[in-house]
Amino acid sequence: MTEIGHSAEERPIYSVQIHDQRVNHNVTIVIVFGSHSREWASQNSAVFLIRHLLNNTKLHRHIMTTKWYIVPVLNPDGYHFSTTKSSLWRKNRRLLANSKCVGVDLDRNFPAGWKSASSKKGWCEQDFSGPSTLSENEAQILKVFLEKISYTDAYVDVHSCSQAILMPFNYQKVDIPKDSLKSMTDAANQMKAAMEKTRGTKYAVKAGSDLRVVGGTSLDFAFQDLDIPITFMLELGYVNKGETREDLLNCFHPSDENLVFLEKECLQGLLALNQYLVSKHQPRQKSPDDFDIKNQGSTKSTLYAVSLSSALFQMSLLVRNKCWQ
Ligand SMILES: [Zn+2]
């Protein structure tokens, strides 16, 4: 576990890197959770995923040969605020200069298509895209983190609760290049099939712009600006999701029973993505400039670069307990 920076209110933002140091790594997956603070299934699914990877690595060779980079809570200030004061808060908690409003929507603050997003939203709106592109600490931290990783096969940004696996573009109604579209659609369909097995939830596979056209997402930034070949926004969600405010609240803040299903769906989707990538890749030599936890001053165990540290337990308690207050 590595601290990759601090939020506007000085909370640490962590990344968790999981890999077996004894093997060459064919695949690198980066997964980010909790950019939208009210989408509690996301942060909880991060803990569920980390526990699974740490507990099951010996059993699954396809997990062992992958480097997993996980940011469990990109927006800790917003998450704290959502779980203690205002449950539908979505943005970060930065005090904006010359404004009575607080916070920026981190997933509207990235460069790709930002201009189109910024022109439409007021500063007090929950999806305010910020005074300028990458104006927010948390977005900057994620950008730098992604750029340090020498090669990323797939990037997934986990949200809730639109029940979909979204591909680029989000900011424009333009198809991505054919090769990219084919590999992304193939991977997404494998994820969808695996997720559906949990309890029958059918996830839609489509472009983000088919859900809504918005700019400044990390989905488009990772694909367009960082050239990561497979990028998804995973929108966890329910079967028979209703449209009322109560339905929405239930979806953003699921019951314990529903939360477990969402965590499992997320896990199964990500494992299926990994399996897809492993099946497509030839072994690749480790690059000398691979972003490695050794260079970040973190602890490491003999077998894995990451263990369930006390910080992870603290994070887990935060996720498990504060949601239900
Ligand atoms: Zn979201």
TrEMBL record:
Transmembrane segments: none annotated. Keywords: Carboxypeptidase, Hydrolase, Metal-binding, Metalloprotease, Protease, Signal, Zinc. GO terms for cellular component: extracellular space. The keyword Protease applies. Its cofactor is Zn(2+). GO terms for biological process: proteolysis. Belongs to the peptidase M14 family. This is Peptidase M14 domain-containing protein. It comes from Apolygus lucorum (Small green plant bug).
